[in-house]
Protein backbone atom coordinates (compact mmCIF):
# COMPACT_ATOMS: atom_id res chain seq x y z
CA UNK A 1 0.00 0.00 0.00
CA UNK A 2 1.65 3.20 -1.20
CA UNK A 3 1.65 6.36 0.92
CA UNK A 4 3.86 9.41 0.56
CA UNK A 5 4.81 10.48 4.04
CA UNK A 6 7.25 13.39 4.27
CA UNK A 7 9.04 14.10 7.54
CA UNK A 8 9.84 17.75 6.75
CA UNK A 9 6.25 18.46 5.68
CA UNK A 10 4.36 21.24 7.43
CA UNK A 11 1.57 18.72 8.16
CA UNK A 12 1.92 16.29 11.09
CA UNK A 13 2.64 12.67 10.05
CA UNK A 14 -0.71 11.48 11.39
CA UNK A 15 -2.59 14.05 9.32
CA UNK A 16 -0.69 13.11 6.16
CA UNK A 17 -1.59 9.45 6.64
CA UNK A 18 -5.18 10.30 7.56
CA UNK A 19 -5.74 12.43 4.41
CA UNK A 20 -4.15 9.92 2.06
CA UNK A 21 -5.94 6.92 3.53
CA UNK A 22 -9.27 8.74 3.39
CA UNK A 23 -8.70 9.71 -0.25
CA UNK A 24 -7.83 6.12 -1.21
CA UNK A 25 -11.04 4.85 0.43
CA UNK A 26 -13.27 7.52 -1.13
CA UNK A 27 -11.79 6.86 -4.55
CA UNK A 28 -12.28 3.12 -4.16
CA UNK A 29 -8.55 2.36 -4.35
CA UNK A 30 -9.02 0.48 -1.07
CA UNK A 31 -12.43 -1.15 -1.19
CA UNK A 32 -15.01 -1.89 1.49
CA UNK A 33 -14.22 -5.06 3.41
CA UNK A 34 -10.50 -4.89 2.64
CA UNK A 35 -8.25 -5.54 5.62
CA UNK A 36 -5.66 -2.89 6.39
CA UNK A 37 -2.15 -3.83 7.45
CA UNK A 38 -1.76 -4.12 11.21
CA UNK A 39 -0.68 -0.94 12.99
CA UNK A 40 2.74 -2.50 13.59
CA UNK A 41 3.32 -3.45 9.96
CA UNK A 42 1.97 -0.13 8.64
CA UNK A 43 4.27 1.75 11.04
CA UNK A 44 7.27 -0.32 9.91
CA UNK A 45 6.40 0.14 6.24
CA UNK A 46 6.12 3.91 6.57
CA UNK A 47 8.95 4.38 9.05
CA UNK A 48 6.71 6.14 11.56
CA UNK A 49 5.76 5.33 15.14
CA UNK A 50 3.10 2.75 15.84
CA UNK A 51 1.27 5.28 18.04
CA UNK A 52 0.80 7.53 15.02
CA UNK A 53 -0.83 4.71 13.05
CA UNK A 54 -2.98 3.74 16.05
CA UNK A 55 -4.13 7.35 16.34
CA UNK A 56 -5.09 7.48 12.64
CA UNK A 57 -6.91 4.13 12.71
CA UNK A 58 -8.83 5.14 15.84
CA UNK A 59 -9.79 8.52 14.41
CA UNK A 60 -10.95 6.99 11.12
CA UNK A 61 -12.88 4.30 12.99
CA UNK A 62 -14.65 7.06 14.94
CA UNK A 63 -15.45 8.78 11.63
CA UNK A 64 -16.89 5.55 10.21
CA UNK A 65 -14.29 4.91 7.49
CA UNK A 66 -12.83 1.87 9.29
CA UNK A 67 -14.13 -0.91 11.48
CA UNK A 68 -12.22 -2.98 13.98
CA UNK A 69 -13.09 -6.66 14.35
CA UNK A 70 -11.76 -8.12 17.54
CA UNK A 71 -8.90 -10.49 16.84
CA UNK A 72 -9.27 -10.09 13.06
CA UNK A 73 -7.89 -6.61 12.42
CA UNK A 74 -9.00 -3.29 10.92
CA UNK A 75 -11.20 -3.22 7.81
CA UNK A 76 -12.50 -0.58 5.44
CA UNK A 77 -16.22 0.01 5.99
CA UNK A 78 -18.52 -1.09 3.16
CA UNK A 79 -20.26 1.56 1.04
CA UNK A 80 -17.88 4.46 1.70
CA UNK A 81 -16.90 4.84 -1.96
CA UNK A 82 -18.01 8.24 -3.30
CA UNK A 83 -20.43 7.90 -6.22
CA UNK A 84 -18.54 10.13 -8.59
CA UNK A 85 -15.24 8.34 -7.95
CA UNK A 86 -16.54 4.98 -9.14
CA UNK A 87 -15.65 5.34 -12.81
CA UNK A 88 -12.32 6.82 -11.93
CA UNK A 89 -11.54 3.55 -10.20
CA UNK A 90 -11.95 1.52 -13.36
CA UNK A 91 -9.79 4.03 -15.25
CA UNK A 92 -7.17 3.62 -12.57
CA UNK A 93 -7.02 -0.11 -12.76
CA UNK A 94 -6.80 -0.04 -16.59
CA UNK A 95 -4.24 2.67 -16.95
CA UNK A 96 -2.87 4.37 -13.91
CA UNK A 97 -1.27 7.11 -15.97
CA UNK A 98 -4.69 8.42 -16.99
CA UNK A 99 -5.82 8.70 -13.39
CA UNK A 100 -4.48 12.19 -12.76
CA UNK A 101 -1.52 14.14 -14.00
CA UNK A 102 1.42 14.43 -11.67
CA UNK A 103 1.11 18.20 -11.66
CA UNK A 104 -0.28 20.19 -8.78
CA UNK A 105 -2.98 22.15 -10.54
CA UNK A 106 -3.27 25.80 -9.46
CA UNK A 107 -4.67 26.86 -12.84
CA UNK A 108 -7.54 29.31 -12.48
CA UNK A 109 -11.00 28.49 -13.74
CA UNK A 110 -10.70 24.72 -13.35
CA UNK A 111 -13.43 23.10 -11.25
CA UNK A 112 -12.78 19.86 -9.33
CA UNK A 113 -12.64 17.55 -12.35
CA UNK A 114 -12.67 14.38 -10.22
CA UNK A 115 -15.95 15.50 -8.64
CA UNK A 116 -17.93 15.67 -11.87
CA UNK A 117 -21.21 13.88 -11.02
CA UNK A 118 -20.58 11.09 -13.52
CA UNK A 119 -23.14 8.64 -12.21
CA UNK A 120 -26.11 11.03 -12.21
CA UNK A 121 -25.05 12.64 -15.50
CA UNK A 122 -24.70 9.30 -17.27
CA UNK A 123 -28.09 8.15 -15.95
CA UNK A 124 -29.78 11.25 -17.37
CA UNK A 125 -27.74 10.90 -20.59
CA UNK A 126 -28.78 7.27 -21.02
CA UNK A 127 -32.40 8.27 -20.72
CA UNK A 128 -32.02 11.10 -23.26
CA UNK A 129 -30.22 8.86 -25.77
CA UNK A 130 -32.71 6.01 -25.37
CA UNK A 131 -36.00 7.83 -25.20
CA UNK A 132 -35.70 10.97 -27.35
CA UNK A 133 -37.55 11.27 -30.64
CA UNK A 134 -35.49 10.81 -33.81
CA UNK A 135 -35.72 14.56 -34.53
CA UNK A 136 -33.22 15.23 -31.77
CA UNK A 137 -30.52 13.61 -33.91
CA UNK A 138 -31.08 16.05 -36.78
CA UNK A 139 -30.18 19.72 -37.38
CA UNK A 140 -31.60 22.07 -34.76
CA UNK A 141 -32.34 25.77 -34.41
CA UNK A 142 -29.20 27.97 -33.97
CA UNK A 143 -30.50 29.34 -30.67
CA UNK A 144 -30.16 25.92 -29.05
CA UNK A 145 -32.53 23.65 -27.18
CA UNK A 146 -35.73 25.43 -26.17
CA UNK A 147 -36.00 23.08 -23.20
CA UNK A 148 -32.56 24.17 -21.97
CA UNK A 149 -33.27 27.86 -22.58
CA UNK A 150 -36.43 27.61 -20.48
CA UNK A 151 -34.59 25.77 -17.74
CA UNK A 152 -31.76 28.34 -17.76
CA UNK A 153 -34.24 31.23 -17.54
CA UNK A 154 -35.85 29.61 -14.48
CA UNK A 155 -32.45 28.77 -12.97
CA UNK A 156 -31.18 32.33 -13.38
CA UNK A 157 -34.32 33.65 -11.75
CA UNK A 158 -33.79 31.32 -8.76
CA UNK A 159 -30.10 31.93 -8.22
CA UNK A 160 -29.44 35.42 -9.66
CA UNK A 161 -32.86 37.08 -9.63
CA UNK A 162 -32.60 37.57 -13.39
CA UNK A 163 -35.89 37.82 -15.24
CA UNK A 164 -35.39 37.01 -18.89
CA UNK A 165 -37.32 35.59 -21.78
CA UNK A 166 -35.95 32.21 -23.00
CA UNK A 167 -36.32 33.70 -26.48
CA UNK A 168 -33.49 36.15 -25.63
CA UNK A 169 -31.06 33.32 -24.82
CA UNK A 170 -28.65 31.69 -27.26
CA UNK A 171 -26.83 28.54 -26.19
CA UNK A 172 -23.15 28.73 -27.11
CA UNK A 173 -20.08 26.52 -26.90
CA UNK A 174 -18.92 28.03 -23.62
CA UNK A 175 -18.58 31.69 -22.73
CA UNK A 176 -15.67 31.81 -25.16
CA UNK A 177 -17.97 31.33 -28.12
CA UNK A 178 -20.47 33.74 -26.60
CA UNK A 179 -17.77 36.43 -26.77
CA UNK A 180 -16.96 35.42 -30.34
CA UNK A 181 -20.61 35.62 -31.30
CA UNK A 182 -21.03 39.03 -29.70
CA UNK A 183 -17.83 40.32 -31.34
CA UNK A 184 -19.06 39.22 -34.77
CA UNK A 185 -22.56 40.54 -34.16
CA UNK A 186 -21.82 44.00 -32.75
CA UNK A 187 -18.11 44.91 -32.92
CA UNK A 188 -17.23 46.30 -36.33
CA UNK A 189 -13.74 47.61 -37.26
CA UNK A 190 -12.85 50.74 -35.30
CA UNK A 191 -15.60 50.32 -32.68
CA UNK A 192 -14.26 51.44 -29.30
CA UNK A 193 -14.21 48.55 -26.82
CA UNK A 194 -13.41 49.35 -23.17
CA UNK A 195 -12.00 46.44 -21.25
CA UNK A 196 -10.77 45.93 -17.72
CA UNK A 197 -7.00 45.88 -17.33
CA UNK A 198 -6.11 43.14 -16.51
CA UNK A 199 -8.59 41.00 -18.46
CA UNK A 200 -8.50 37.33 -19.54
CA UNK A 201 -6.00 37.42 -22.42
CA UNK A 202 -8.11 35.22 -24.71
CA UNK A 203 -11.24 37.35 -24.25
CA UNK A 204 -9.34 40.53 -25.09
CA UNK A 205 -8.04 38.87 -28.25
CA UNK A 206 -11.55 37.78 -29.26
CA UNK A 207 -12.90 41.30 -28.71
CA UNK A 208 -10.20 42.81 -30.91
CA UNK A 209 -10.52 40.01 -33.48
CA UNK A 210 -13.27 41.66 -35.50
CA UNK A 211 -11.46 45.00 -35.62
CA UNK A 212 -12.58 46.52 -32.30
CA UNK A 213 -10.26 49.15 -30.90
CA UNK A 214 -9.33 48.00 -27.39
CA UNK A 215 -9.03 50.66 -24.66
CA UNK A 216 -7.87 49.39 -21.26
CA UNK A 217 -9.52 50.82 -18.15
CA UNK A 218 -7.60 50.40 -14.91
CA UNK A 219 -8.93 48.19 -12.16
CA UNK A 220 -8.47 49.01 -8.47
CA UNK A 221 -9.37 47.07 -5.33
CA UNK A 222 -13.10 47.55 -6.13
CA UNK A 223 -12.91 46.61 -9.81
CA UNK A 224 -13.27 48.76 -12.91
CA UNK A 225 -12.54 52.44 -12.19
CA UNK A 226 -15.71 53.93 -13.64
CA UNK A 227 -14.38 57.48 -13.23
CA UNK A 228 -11.72 56.68 -15.89
CA UNK A 229 -14.41 56.29 -18.56
CA UNK A 230 -14.58 59.24 -20.97
CA UNK A 231 -17.98 60.85 -21.63
CA UNK A 232 -17.37 62.47 -25.01
CA UNK A 233 -17.87 59.31 -27.02
CA UNK A 234 -20.82 57.34 -28.44
CA UNK A 235 -21.71 53.71 -29.30
CA UNK A 236 -18.96 51.94 -27.39
CA UNK A 237 -18.77 48.42 -25.99
CA UNK A 238 -17.69 47.82 -22.40
CA UNK A 239 -16.64 44.38 -21.19
CA UNK A 240 -16.74 43.71 -17.42
CA UNK A 241 -16.66 40.94 -14.81
CA UNK A 242 -18.60 42.79 -12.07
CA UNK A 243 -19.44 39.78 -9.90
CA UNK A 244 -15.81 38.69 -9.59
CA UNK A 245 -13.17 40.52 -11.54
CA UNK A 246 -10.84 38.21 -13.42
CA UNK A 247 -8.17 37.84 -12.20
CA UNK A 248 -8.01 40.32 -9.30
CA UNK A 249 -11.26 39.16 -7.71
CA UNK A 250 -12.98 42.48 -6.88
CA UNK A 251 -16.76 42.70 -6.63
CA UNK A 252 -17.94 45.91 -8.26
CA UNK A 253 -19.76 48.05 -5.65
CA UNK A 254 -23.31 49.24 -6.23
CA UNK A 255 -22.29 52.86 -6.87
CA UNK A 256 -19.97 51.85 -9.73
CA UNK A 257 -22.64 49.57 -11.19
CA UNK A 258 -25.00 52.53 -11.36
CA UNK A 259 -22.27 54.65 -12.94
CA UNK A 260 -21.66 51.96 -15.56
CA UNK A 261 -25.33 51.84 -16.50
CA UNK A 262 -25.44 55.66 -16.62
CA UNK A 263 -22.39 55.65 -18.88
CA UNK A 264 -24.04 53.12 -21.20
CA UNK A 265 -27.25 55.19 -21.32
CA UNK A 266 -25.51 58.51 -21.92
CA UNK A 267 -23.17 57.15 -24.59
CA UNK A 268 -25.63 54.69 -26.19
CA UNK A 269 -23.21 51.86 -25.39
CA UNK A 270 -23.55 48.14 -24.74
CA UNK A 271 -22.12 46.39 -21.66
CA UNK A 272 -20.88 42.79 -21.86
CA UNK A 273 -21.35 41.25 -18.41
CA UNK A 274 -19.23 38.11 -17.95
CA UNK A 275 -20.73 36.27 -14.96
CA UNK A 276 -18.44 33.25 -15.11
CA UNK A 277 -18.25 31.99 -11.51
CA UNK A 278 -20.65 33.94 -9.28
CA UNK A 279 -22.36 30.79 -7.97
CA UNK A 280 -19.36 30.32 -5.70
CA UNK A 281 -19.75 33.02 -3.10
CA UNK A 282 -18.47 32.04 0.35
CA UNK A 283 -19.95 34.82 2.47
CA UNK A 284 -22.64 37.43 2.05
CA UNK A 285 -25.29 37.46 -0.63
CA UNK A 286 -24.40 38.19 -4.26
CA UNK A 287 -25.10 41.59 -5.83
CA UNK A 288 -27.76 41.64 -8.47
CA UNK A 289 -26.49 41.58 -12.03
CA UNK A 290 -26.00 44.55 -14.35
CA UNK A 291 -28.41 42.77 -16.68
CA UNK A 292 -31.20 43.01 -14.09
CA UNK A 293 -30.57 46.76 -13.79
CA UNK A 294 -30.71 47.45 -17.53
CA UNK A 295 -31.63 44.47 -19.75
CA UNK A 296 -31.72 46.66 -22.88
CA UNK A 297 -28.10 47.79 -22.35
CA UNK A 298 -26.47 44.55 -21.18
CA UNK A 299 -25.39 41.37 -22.93
CA UNK A 300 -25.19 38.77 -20.14
CA UNK A 301 -22.75 35.87 -20.60
CA UNK A 302 -22.85 32.72 -18.48
CA UNK A 303 -21.15 29.34 -18.56
CA UNK A 304 -21.42 25.83 -17.14
CA UNK A 305 -17.64 25.39 -17.32
CA UNK A 306 -16.98 26.35 -13.71
CA UNK A 307 -20.08 24.97 -12.01
CA UNK A 308 -20.01 21.64 -13.86
CA UNK A 309 -17.29 20.99 -16.44
CA UNK A 310 -15.46 22.94 -19.15
CA UNK A 311 -15.45 19.79 -21.30
CA UNK A 312 -19.20 20.11 -21.85
CA UNK A 313 -18.60 23.36 -23.76
CA UNK A 314 -21.96 24.81 -22.81
CA UNK A 315 -22.43 28.49 -22.15
CA UNK A 316 -25.10 31.00 -23.04
CA UNK A 317 -25.70 34.61 -23.80
CA UNK A 318 -28.77 36.72 -23.05
CA UNK A 319 -29.10 39.41 -25.69
CA UNK A 320 -31.03 42.68 -25.46
CA UNK A 321 -34.16 42.32 -27.59
CA UNK A 322 -32.99 44.62 -30.41
CA UNK A 323 -29.80 42.55 -30.94
CA UNK A 324 -31.11 38.98 -30.72
CA UNK A 325 -32.03 38.34 -34.35
CA UNK A 326 -28.68 39.42 -35.70
CA UNK A 327 -26.89 37.33 -33.04
CA UNK A 328 -28.93 34.22 -33.97
CA UNK A 329 -27.91 34.73 -37.57
CA UNK A 330 -24.24 34.96 -36.57
CA UNK A 331 -24.56 31.77 -34.52
CA UNK A 332 -26.02 30.00 -37.55
CA UNK A 333 -22.94 30.86 -39.57
CA UNK A 334 -20.51 30.08 -36.74
CA UNK A 335 -21.47 26.42 -36.30
CA UNK A 336 -25.20 26.12 -37.10
CA UNK A 337 -25.87 25.27 -33.45
CA UNK A 338 -24.02 23.90 -30.43
CA UNK A 339 -24.22 20.09 -29.93
CA UNK A 340 -27.79 19.40 -28.90
CA UNK A 341 -27.67 16.13 -26.97
CA UNK A 342 -25.58 17.55 -24.14
CA UNK A 343 -27.94 20.52 -24.04
CA UNK A 344 -30.95 18.29 -23.46
CA UNK A 345 -29.08 16.22 -20.88
CA UNK A 346 -28.11 19.41 -19.08
CA UNK A 347 -31.69 20.70 -19.18
CA UNK A 348 -32.99 17.51 -17.50
CA UNK A 349 -30.03 17.47 -15.09
CA UNK A 350 -30.91 21.00 -13.92
CA UNK A 351 -34.67 20.42 -13.93
CA UNK A 352 -34.25 17.42 -11.61
CA UNK A 353 -32.36 19.60 -9.13
CA UNK A 354 -28.97 17.94 -9.65
CA UNK A 355 -27.09 21.10 -10.60
CA UNK A 356 -27.96 23.08 -7.48
CA UNK A 357 -27.16 20.04 -5.35
CA UNK A 358 -23.79 19.71 -7.07
CA UNK A 359 -23.00 23.43 -6.76
CA UNK A 360 -23.84 23.37 -3.03
CA UNK A 361 -21.55 20.41 -2.53
CA UNK A 362 -18.75 22.02 -4.53
CA UNK A 363 -19.13 25.33 -2.69
CA UNK A 364 -18.24 23.54 0.57
CA UNK A 365 -15.26 21.84 -1.06
CA UNK A 366 -13.92 25.06 -2.61
CA UNK A 367 -14.44 27.04 0.60
CA UNK A 368 -12.29 24.48 2.44
CA UNK A 369 -9.65 24.57 -0.32
CA UNK A 370 -9.63 28.36 -0.30
CA UNK A 371 -9.16 28.55 3.47
CA UNK A 372 -6.43 25.92 3.36
CA UNK A 373 -4.64 27.79 0.57
CA UNK A 374 -4.75 31.17 2.31
CA UNK A 375 -3.68 29.64 5.64
CA UNK A 376 -0.70 27.95 4.04
CA UNK A 377 0.35 30.92 1.96
CA UNK A 378 0.27 33.18 5.02
CA UNK A 379 2.13 30.64 7.11
CA UNK A 380 4.89 30.10 4.55
CA UNK A 381 5.12 33.72 3.36
CA UNK A 382 4.33 36.10 6.26
CA UNK A 383 4.80 39.12 3.95
CA UNK A 384 2.32 37.92 1.36
CA UNK A 385 -0.73 39.97 0.33
CA UNK A 386 -3.86 38.03 -0.59
CA UNK A 387 -6.01 39.80 -3.17
CA UNK A 388 -9.61 39.05 -4.13
CA UNK A 389 -13.04 38.67 -2.59
CA UNK A 390 -14.28 35.53 -0.93
CA UNK A 391 -15.73 33.95 -4.04
CA UNK A 392 -15.01 32.06 -7.23
CA UNK A 393 -12.28 29.51 -7.85
CA UNK A 394 -9.10 31.54 -7.49
CA UNK A 395 -7.23 34.11 -5.45
CA UNK A 396 -4.28 36.32 -6.32
CA UNK A 397 -1.23 36.43 -4.08
CA UNK A 398 1.36 39.23 -4.20
CA UNK A 399 4.90 38.23 -3.14
CA UNK A 400 6.87 41.37 -2.20
CA UNK A 401 10.24 41.59 -3.97
CA UNK A 402 9.67 38.62 -6.30
CA UNK A 403 9.35 38.88 -10.07
CA UNK A 404 7.53 35.98 -11.69
CA UNK A 405 9.20 36.32 -15.06
CA UNK A 406 9.07 33.62 -17.73
CA UNK A 407 12.21 31.96 -16.41
CA UNK A 408 10.87 31.63 -12.87
CA UNK A 409 7.45 30.44 -14.08
CA UNK A 410 9.25 27.81 -16.17
CA UNK A 411 11.15 26.57 -13.11
CA UNK A 412 7.88 26.36 -11.18
CA UNK A 413 6.30 24.31 -13.98
CA UNK A 414 9.34 22.04 -14.25
CA UNK A 415 8.88 21.31 -10.57
CA UNK A 416 5.35 20.07 -11.18
CA UNK A 417 3.16 23.09 -10.53
CA UNK A 418 0.68 24.53 -13.03
CA UNK A 419 0.11 28.20 -12.30
CA UNK A 420 -0.08 31.57 -14.09
CA UNK A 421 0.98 35.09 -13.22
CA UNK A 422 -1.41 38.06 -13.29
CA UNK A 423 0.95 39.83 -15.68
CA UNK A 424 -0.06 37.45 -18.50
CA UNK A 425 -3.49 39.09 -18.52
CA UNK A 426 -2.30 42.69 -18.09
CA UNK A 427 -2.48 45.06 -21.05
CA UNK A 428 -0.23 47.71 -19.50
CA UNK A 429 2.66 45.53 -18.43
CA UNK A 430 4.83 45.81 -15.34
CA UNK A 431 2.34 46.40 -12.55
CA UNK A 432 1.62 42.80 -11.54
CA UNK A 433 4.97 41.04 -11.93
CA UNK A 434 4.99 39.86 -8.30
CA UNK A 435 1.50 38.34 -8.40
CA UNK A 436 0.38 34.77 -9.01
CA UNK A 437 -3.15 33.52 -9.66
CA UNK A 438 -3.86 30.49 -7.47
CA UNK A 439 -6.80 28.42 -8.70
CA UNK A 440 -8.02 26.12 -5.93
CA UNK A 441 -10.78 24.24 -7.76
CA UNK A 442 -8.87 21.29 -9.16
CA UNK A 443 -6.59 20.40 -6.27
CA UNK A 444 -7.14 18.88 -2.84
CA UNK A 445 -5.88 20.12 0.50
CA UNK A 446 -2.85 17.87 0.48
CA UNK A 447 -1.84 19.12 -2.96
CA UNK A 448 -2.35 22.71 -1.82
CA UNK A 449 -0.09 22.16 1.18
CA UNK A 450 2.54 20.42 -0.97
CA UNK A 451 2.31 22.99 -3.74
CA UNK A 452 2.77 25.99 -1.45
CA UNK A 453 5.71 24.31 0.30
CA UNK A 454 7.27 23.57 -3.10
CA UNK A 455 6.87 27.17 -4.26
CA UNK A 456 8.55 28.29 -1.05
CA UNK A 457 11.51 25.99 -1.73
CA UNK A 458 11.76 27.26 -5.32
CA UNK A 459 11.67 30.91 -4.23
CA UNK A 460 14.33 30.19 -1.63
CA UNK A 461 16.49 28.78 -4.43
CA UNK A 462 16.43 25.28 -2.97
CA UNK A 463 14.99 23.62 -6.10
C1 LIG B 1 -13.22 35.38 -16.92
C2 LIG B 1 -13.60 34.22 -17.78
N1 LIG B 1 -14.75 34.27 -18.46
C3 LIG B 1 -15.10 33.26 -19.26
C4 LIG B 1 -14.31 32.16 -19.43
C5 LIG B 1 -14.69 31.14 -20.47
O1 LIG B 1 -15.14 29.96 -20.07
P1 LIG B 1 -15.79 28.92 -21.08
O2 LIG B 1 -15.50 29.29 -22.49
O3 LIG B 1 -15.17 27.62 -20.74
O4 LIG B 1 -17.24 28.96 -20.80
C6 LIG B 1 -13.11 32.06 -18.75
C7 LIG B 1 -12.26 30.88 -18.90
O5 LIG B 1 -11.50 30.48 -18.05
C8 LIG B 1 -12.75 33.12 -17.90
O6 LIG B 1 -11.61 33.09 -17.21
UniProtKB/TrEMBL annotation:
HTH gntR-type domain mapped to chain residues: 11-79
UniProt xrefs under PROSITE patterns: HTH_GNTR
Keywords, alphabetical: Aminotransferase, DNA-binding, Pyridoxal phosphate, Transcription, Transcription regulation, Transferase
Cofactor(s) the protein requires to work: pyridoxal 5'-phosphate
Domain of life: Bacteria
Keyword Transcription: yes
A Pfam family per the record: GntR
Record-annotated membrane-spanning stretches: none
One function term, GO molecular function aspect: DNA binding
PANTHER family assigned: HTH-TYPE TRANSCRIPTIONAL REGULATORY PROTEIN GABR (PTHR46577)
Annotated family: In the C-terminal section; belongs to the class-I pyridoxal-phosphate-dependent aminotransferase family.
Protein name: GntR family transcriptional regulator / MocR family aminotransferase
Amino acid sequence: MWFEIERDHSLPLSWQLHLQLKEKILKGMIVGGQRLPSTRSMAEQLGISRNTVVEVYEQMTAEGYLQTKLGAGTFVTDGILLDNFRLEKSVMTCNRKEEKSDYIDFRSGFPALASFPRMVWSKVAKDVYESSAADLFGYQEPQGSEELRQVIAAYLYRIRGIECDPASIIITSGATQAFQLVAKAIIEPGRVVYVEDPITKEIREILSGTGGSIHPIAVDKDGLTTNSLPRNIQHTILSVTPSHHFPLGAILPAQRRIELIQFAEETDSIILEDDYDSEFRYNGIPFSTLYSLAPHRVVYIGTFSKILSPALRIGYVIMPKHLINNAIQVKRYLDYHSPILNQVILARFIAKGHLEKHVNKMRKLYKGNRECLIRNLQKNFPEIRIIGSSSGLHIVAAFPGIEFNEKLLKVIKENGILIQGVERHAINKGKYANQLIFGYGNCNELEIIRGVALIKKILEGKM
